[in-house]
Amino acid sequence: MDVNTKLIKKNAFRVTKVRGMTASRVRVPGGHLEAKYLGMVQEIAEEFGNGTVHITSRQGFEIPGIPFEKMPEVNSRLQPIIEGLGINQTDPGTGYPASGTRNITACPGNRICPYACYDTTAFAQRIEKAIFPNDLHFKVALTGCPNDCAKVRMHDFGIIGMTEPQFEPERCVNCGACIKYCRKKSVEALQRVKFRPQRNEEKCIGCGECVINCPMRAWTRSEQKYYKLTLLGRTGKRNPRLGEDFIKWIDEDSIVKIIVNAYEYVTKYVDPEAPGGKEHIGYIVDRTGFEEFEKFIMQGVTLPEKAEVFKPLYWKGPHFDR
Amino acid sequence: MGYILSPEAADRLIASLADDCLVFAPKRFVGGAVFSDLDCIRYGEVKTAGEIVFDQKSDYSFKEILTPVCQALFYFTEDQIKEADAPEKGAVVFLRSCDLHAVKRLDDIYLNNGEEDYYYRRLRDRVKFVVMGCSEAFDSCFCVDMGTNVPEGYNMSMEPAEGGFAIDCRDAELDELLGSLADRECDVEPSHVEETKTRVKIPEGLTQDVMRSKIWDEYDGRCIACGRCNFVCPTCTCYTMQDLFYTENGRVGERRRVQASCMVDGFTDVAGGGSYRKKNGERMRFKTLHKALDYKQRFGYQMCVGCGRCDDVCPEYISFSRILNRLGDMMEEVNTDAE
């Protein structure tokens, strides 16, 4: 049996434990899809695979037990899923054009969750459109609010939804709900001053608990949507670590530019000896220094006035290599 | 007199009303809801007919115009006080039949319940009401059972009809204005509903004994005492006082009153540190019996107008209409226990 493993991996198939068997990896940007695609995944699994499907930790499907020779057929059966989910593709019918840039994951966002500050799936799809296909190993995740259910701090780029609470004093009845919930569920950024909540803007993380718990609509959400962008978190063997806050109160456009810009940096500095050309961005930045990385990613980025950039950045996490 | 107005003529009507007074109506506050990317429908000033939301129930009631959420009463310094100015202009308020019936409740509490409330009176005297006809009830409405479905005592009615608006005018001043704007005159009767999906029956023989029911305890755990049910209610009238001393000069300040809720912590706090009704179930009981029993004993009719906003707004999905409907079971429970 002759299989070019380098090529099939880039086509979103994997070398599995079972000799002669591959697995097809279906990406679902933003983790939300019309139910009809589940039926298509089921059909592929039952006709070409071993009848099982793994729901991946990156919100995709992995269909195992597919003989290598069935890949072209599977690719043609994947076509409606690829098209339906809006995946960029050059040659229809040939499956996924890359796998290095991983599926962009998201919490349910404001399509479902009351805490979410934005539509995480829609933003994930926008980023997917901007960065996929690419063979470089990028991990991007989005979460609707600072609860970070999507665990975005374990990604190269973590996007956390924020809202800037707007206060209309004439609608405040001094019930204290905002202050209580900010203290108990968030960061205690509110205190009562002369019958009204006073917001510590520096401390506020934009979670929206005050808005959610205000019975009067005295607190409402800002029209502009804001985000926190965290950088270069990772899992893995050597030095797993959480992403650090880079920019607080950043806007959607700037985030997209920053992620797109990072590809140029990685192309230039990725270790040419890295196995499979795959290296977490964080390790590259550990070599070049953050300033060089920042120079690349901030090209052409105009941040909103409110944006706070945190520098210098230091990451933590255990170093198992030392 | 009845009129049919084109949308453009209706805009002109609102614009010319707005020249002389403040026009308040349910309007859309884009992104103004609790959760992101959702709108809030609540009262605000409008300048055109197009801004008025006819096809949805407002999340909050009109009462904010007559009993402002936060209202300065007077300003003080040393031995002087200055009364807060009344609004320069009068107001026209758009509201549905249930809310129009709520005005009677507000009037009875503020004007016919001992000493007249001065601040209420000075706003109330300068308000005209435009009733918005209801061609069908919303899911949580129960106006028919509360006897508030037919509008009474309005200055004007207005509702979408024939691609424009149908208007019934009972006010000489407005009639004059309408005569010059209307496409045509005809008989108009504001729509009202005769049946609702939600039905409510408050038992006739309701007594204080119902306080002893165990059912109230259920709400200890379910209710979070946020007060939304009170704040959206068109008939809740409680307020609290705030004496505010300005930061820059502590001898100068203002007294204001703000809406209050019998569900929220602090409502029953008294001097010396006492607090009654600590449990949320007790608060629910108090609120329910104030509406369904005490008010009726004092004024001879039910306080609740059946607008259903409390059901719509409760984040814990507690239905006040269901509580009213459970009063019968509760009476049975306490009567059986007594035997």
Describe the model.
The complex is a heterodimer of chains A (322) and B (339). Chain A is α+β, with helices and mostly antiparallel strands and 322 residues long. Chain A folds into 3 domains: 5-84, Sulfite Reductase Hemoprotein, domain 2 (Alpha-Beta Complex); 105-162 and 225-309, Sulfite Reductase Hemoprotein, domain 1 (2-Layer Sandwich), CATH 3.30.413; 166-220, 2-Layer Sandwich (Alpha-Beta Plaits), CATH 3.30.70.20. Chain A has helices at residues 5-10, 36-47, 71-84, 120-131, 177-185, 209-213, 252-269, 281-288, 290-297; strands at residues 13-15, 21-26, 54-55, 61-67, 105-106, 140-143, 157-162, 166-167, 190-193, 196-199, 219-220, 226-231, 244-250, 308-309. In chain A, strands 5-6-7-12-13-14 form a 6-stranded mixed sheet, covered by helices on one side. Chain A has a 4-stranded antiparallel sheet with strand order 1-2-4-3. Chain A has a two-stranded antiparallel ribbon with strand order 8-11. The longest helix of chain A is centred in the last third of the chain and has 18 residues, at 252-269. Chain A is globular, with a radius of gyration of 22 Å. With 339 residues, chain B is of the alpha+beta class. In chain B, the strands form 2 sheets. An 8-stranded mixed sheet of chain B has the order 3-2-6-7-8-9-1-10. Chain B has a 4-stranded antiparallel sheet with strand order 5-4-12-11, with no helix packed on it. Chain B is globular. Chain A binds chain B through residues 110, 114, 116-119, 163, 169-177, 194-195, 208, 211-217, 220-221, 223, 225, and chain B through 29-32, 34-37, 40, 42, 59-60, 68-70, 226-228, 231, 240, 242, 244-245, 247, 258-261, 264-266.
